[in-house]
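cron nightly-structures :: item 1 of 1
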Amino acid sequence: MKQEYIISTSELESSDVIVIGGGPAGIAASISASRCGKKVTLIEQSGQLGGMATLGNVSIFMPVGNITGIYKEILSEFIPEQLKNANENKFDPHFNPFLYRYYLNQKLEKEKVKVLYHTTFITVLKEENITKGIIVHTREGLMSMIGKIIIDCTGDAAVAINAGAEYITGRSEDDITQPMTLMFQMQNTGQKVDNILPEGCYYYNEKSDLPQGRTLYWENISEGTLLVNMTRVKGNGSKINELNNAVVESLKQVFSVANYLQRNGFENYIISHIGSQVGVRETNQIKGLYTLNQDDLFMGRRFEDVVAQTNYEIDIHSPDGEKSCDERKIDSYDIPYRCMIPKGEGLENILVAGRAISATHVAMSSLRVQPTCYALGQAAGIAATIAIDHNKGVSEIAIDKLHTMMYKYGVKFN
C-alpha cells in the first residue's frame, strides 16, 4: 500500500519569475528579467553565486566566438583589462574565483534580484496540471513560492523533469555521461616545497598514469598560479552513488596529481585552493521543441529563433573512463529558442536554460561552457518577461519581439 504524505509549508512572497540555480544561466536570467521590470527570486542551494566558476574553481571562461550581452557586460565590469584586447575566437580569460563571488553578490543586489541562499528545490506545485510554483527547503524548513514563470537553471533539468518534462541522459546508445572533474589551484611559493602524498593516494610516475593521460592546466606566471584540470571520475553527477564516489575519488586524485606536478616542473608549488564541488559536465537534457544535433554544429546552421551563438569545439571527455577526449573544431552555429522549451502538457510556464537544454550528447559537449550558459539565461529571462506581459505560454511568444528586446539589452548576433 502506497503511503501518502501531507507536506506542510510556510509561504514565501510570490514573484513574477522564479529562477532555480545561481550559475551562469541563472544569473543572466535573473538580471534580464529584473531589468525588464519583473519581480525575480533566484534560488541557490549553496552559499555562493557563480556555479562552477566559484563552487568548482573553474575560474576560466572558454572562447565562444561571440562575446555579447550580459556576459560581455560582466567581463567589462569585472576584468576590463583582459577584455580590452580580446580576440573573441581565442578569448579565455582567467579570474580570481573569490573576487568573482564577491562581484556577483554586489551585481545581483544592484540589479534588485532577491537571492535565497542555502535553499534547495524540492518539488513543483501544480494546479489543474499547470505548474504554479515550487516547494523549497530552507533553514526555516519547507516553504512554498508562487511564480508566473519558472526558469530551470539547475544544470540537471531537475525542475522541468519534476514537472513532467521528458528527458534523455548522456549518450543515446547507453545513457552514459561524460566524467566528472574536481579542479584545483596551485601557488608558486618561490622555493622548493615538501612533496607530500597522503596515505591512500596514487603515485603517478609517468604522464600516461594520470587520470586523463595528459597534463591540462593554465599557468599565470605573473601571479604564480596554476589552474589544474587533470582529475577524472567516470559517472553521472545526477545519480547519488555515482556523485558520492566522484566526490571521494576526485579529491584523492587532486593530491595525487599535485604530487606528480611537484615532481615534474612545479617543485615550488603548493595546493592553494580546491573546488568545494566536483565539476559535472553532463547529466540530463530535456526533450524540447527542437533538439540541437551534431549536424547543426558541423553545418554551422542558422535558425530564425536564434538566442545564442558559439563556436566552442566539440569537447567530449571519454564517458567510458578511457584516457581520451574527442575534440573537434567547428565554425559558429546558432542555438534556437525552441531548445529551451520542454515538450509536454502543463509546462507552458517553464523554461530551461544552461547545459540541460534540448541537445544531443555531441551537441551538448560544445554548448555546455559558461559563456554560452550566460547567453541562454539572458534569453530565458527576456522570454519570460514577454510571456508574462502578453499572457502567453513560453512557446507562444513572438520571436521578433524576443530579438528586439535582446538587442535592446546588448545582445548581438554575428
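cron nightly-structures :: done
The chain has eleven helices and 18 strands.
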